Amino acid sequence: MKNKPINFREIVNYLLGKKYEVDNQKFRQLLYQYFTCMNDYYDVINTITNIKAYIHKDEKILYVETHRPGLFIGKAGEQINEIQKYIQDTLGYDITIDLRESRLWIGLYNS
Question: Which pTM was predicted?
Answer without folding.
Answer: 0.72
